[in-house]
Design a protein that fits this description.
The protein is an alpha+beta fold and 265 residues long. It has helices at residues 40-53, 66-75, 155-169, 191-197, and strands at 21-27, 58-64, 80-82, 94-99, 104-112, 131-139, 142-150, 178-183, 202-203, 226-231, 234-241, 257-263. The chain has one domain (21-263): Endonuclease/exonuclease/phosphatase (Deoxyribonuclease I, Chain A, 4-Layer Sandwich). GO terms for molecular function: 3'-5'-RNA exonuclease activity; endonuclease activity.
């Protein structure tokens, strides 16, 4: 596990990047699921196609079995990656961040959403051990913090998980642009969302009628549970839910969500 070192934010570097930063959140649907025609072996070429058609600076993946992680790393071999994927338990689901090589990863931190974050563990009431990966990145003189997570199902657990994540963010310099991607298993206006919102995070496509979980049906009305949250000097320039299918087969039971951000500071 790599600790994130303190970074000075007072540098003056004329090589500041003004390029928009593009981010995706993508719940893959775990590969061990017995999904018949929607099984991972049928879907993985479609995942590659999505990633080819919709390039990003950062991609936050959830629900990734270790063999899916290895597939992603091979498929996007020019990308860097951070996250902890656990090979010894085949069913283990992971969160990964893949990032474009134009960004330098200065450090990263993996932790469990629990009272013992450095040990495989879970909050009381959580069905699964839930995790988060945080990366600290630099491009020219622009810094960005990105976190990727996957919340459990109970509202109280989600709210506590949001609080734990926010506690970790306190260790970083104030005012630095921050993005959180994830499957939050809840919709906007939930207690978990209010926890983020009260601390200055905005939500991509907040207030819109958005569906991100479709259970391989392709439906356009349902729950908005896959989020991209942002704060501190970022402004969306585009927002999209990717509903592409290939011969009626979808890459996942979740739609990927993608957004581009301009720097406002």
């Amino acid at each position: 596990m790599t600790e994130i070192s303190p970074i000075s934010v007072l540098e003056t570097d004329k090589k500041r990047t003004d390029d928009p930063v593009t981010v995706m959140t993508f719940n893959l649907r775990f590969g061990l699921a017995k999904d018949g025609p929607y099984a991972w072996e049928h879907r993985k070429p479609l995942v590659s196609k999505i990633l080819e058609d919709y390039p990003c600076d950062f991609i936050g993946f959830q629900e990734v079995n270790h063999f899916q992680a290895e597939f992603l790393i091979r498929s996007l071999r020019h990308y860097g990656h951070i996250g902890w994927y656990y090979k010894r338990l085949e069913w283990w689901q992971n969160n990964l961040i893949l990032f474009d090589p134009s960004w330098e990863c200065l450090g990263h931190r993996h932790f469990f959403l629990s009272r013992t974050p450095d040990l495989p563990s879970q909050l009381f009431g959580s069905i699964w051990p839930r995790q988060c990966i945080i990366g600290w990145f630099k491009k020219k003189n622009q810094y960005l913090l990105m976190a990727n997570t996957h919340f459990d199902f109970a509202s109280e657990v989600q709210q506590k998980s949001a609080g734990l994540l926010m506690d970790f963010l306190k260790y970083f310099p104030k005012g630095i642009p921050q993005i959180i991607t994830g499957d939050f298993n809840t919709t906007p206006d939930s207690p978990a969302h209010h926890c983020f919102k009260s601390r200055g995070f905005d939500l991509v496509m907040e207030g819109e009628s958005v569906t991100t979980f479709h259970n391989f049906t392709g439906k356009e009305t349902g729950r908005h549970i896959d989020w991209i949250l942002y704060r501190n000097g970022l402004s969306p320039v585009f927002e999209q839910v990717i509903q592409d299918a290939f011969n009626s087969l979808f890459p996942s039971d979740h739609y990927p969500v993608r957004a581009g951000f301009a720097w406002t500071t």
